[in-house]
Amino acid sequence: MSCPIENTNQQLKEKEQTKSSFWEKYGELVAALTSGFLILIAWILSQFSISEMVTIALYISAFVIGGFAKAKEGIEETIKNKEPNVELLMIFAAIGSGLIGYWAEGAILIFIFSLSGALETYTMNKSHKEIASLMNLQPQEALKITADGESVVPVESLQVGDLVLVKPGERIPTDGKINKGTSNLDEAAITGESIPVSKQVGDEVFTGTVNLRSSIVVEVTKESSDSLFQKIIDLVQNAQSEKSPSQQFIERFEGKYVKVVLVAVLLMMFLPHYLLGWSWNDTIYRAMVLLVVASPCALVASIMPATLSAISNGAKRGVLFKGGVHIESLGHLNCIAFDKTGTLTKGKPEVTDIVVRPDLDKKTFLTIVASVEKHSTHPLAQAIVTYAKQQPNTSFIEIDHMEDVSGWGVKATVEKKEWKIGKKAFVGDEATETFENGIAIQLAEEGKTTVFVQDEKGIAGVLALQDTIRQEAIDALALLRHYGIRTVMITGDSEKTAQAIAKEAGVDEYFAECLPQDKVTIIKQLKEKYETVAMVGDGINDAPALATATTGVAMGEGTDVALETADIVLMKNDLSKIAYAIKLSRKMNKIVKQNIIFSLTVIMLLISANFLQAVNLPLGVIGHEGSTILVILNGLRLLREQN
What we know:
This protein is α+β, with helices and mostly antiparallel strands. The protein contains 26 helices and 22 strands. Helix content is 56%, strand content 18%.
């Protein structure tokens, strides 16, 4: 039985957390609206000739309530960075307006500035929404199976080797492998793929994915802190904190620009009076307007919201950027190099052609060959068996004897007849070259691997296998060419195989018979020729080339190694995500450029209008803060999927 005091303490703690969360989310907005309300009351009272001291007191209250957060932020940042910032400019402008008698204008400045700050905080939180939603997908408890039965335990307490029961509709609480049962899992949280994946005993499962069909028992293979899901969260959080080169430049520029503005304002407070004959009141007033309109708030907000929105957009769709620098550079690529196996192709050989002697039945031939190869562990043998299983009404027969001839093939006895399956030299070079009018030579020229079958009468048939190209790879390469990006394939395959694959895939250029160290040399050559080059690989044996390229892209299929290796990770082996990432990057760079041009134009127009005495303080505030809000909202467009 739980203690009532403990329950009360827990309730108080939850209320305190809710209260804290509310003020973190809406505190700035509440302060801004309160400031606006006080300004409204002060203005209404002034219409009824109420004491000026009362209205000034209300305006000062609006100053304090609306400006406290920004003033504190500005002072702390100035002390920390030893550089003045835009927050200080706004506070100085508001105080200066009040000192020369423009209390209403100063209060309105604080109100709009605090309101735009609240909206900026809201929009920044909006851009973090994807990582927050990811974290919410991580279960906090698991149903652990013990010798005494089942018990609910915190996920953090699970150890490698523990068994947990996951019922239909529940999320997988830990990285592991299925120990018992079969089911379909929704892995959208990891790969971005909405189609459920069939899982059986021995298959890997990941934290945060959803068990859809039936109960399964999962054996824990990693502690919660080392799970793939947690690594994805850490990666995206780090990416959101890493600034792009453009953002770093703007922040360095801000400090110097603010100093220039402060000097210009000081000069503005005196020179127009002596040089242009302005009154002291007009001179100081125009100096305060200059302090507002020359502030680079919109310029500072031009990049970061757009970058965070793009990173969040990619994370939602299984494209993980390790920082703003990588998403920015991706849009400037001139060339992309692809590893062949597992990237452009499926990474597994498949039977493409079967040619048999005229006196043999093709189905019988395949049955015999598959029955023999079923006992071999060679990748080509397994591919033949897989192909046979996919054919209708396929059955396997018992073989009498089989002998594995290492490096050449296999010998077998089937229904008292001798069969040989393997390389052409194993069954006779001359016989293979003349079989069916030299079909083997034609298949080899197409880049296919041939497996020959011999019975007591001679060559019985030939099977051709090839690592087939992904259809999405062909589509993606076509789209990349449309973007004006040169595509290159790098492979360790023979010249003929590489040529055939390159032609089918539609790459602009290929390099064959490459060792891992050769890939690095090729990437260096491509960088000299095209300057910005991306390398796309599987994140394991392509690591040196990925590190050498301007941008390394790992086709990870959700692997830990891919997360550690590349600058950008595709959580699903889908090259269409590359094209999407490039489109997203280009869109981001375009929006950033729009924001910078727009914000600088507004600043110049407002400064010019101020010198011509064509803009007053409230209008200057609206123009300045309105432009800031617009560039933030423009950046938030990247949260939507790019068509």
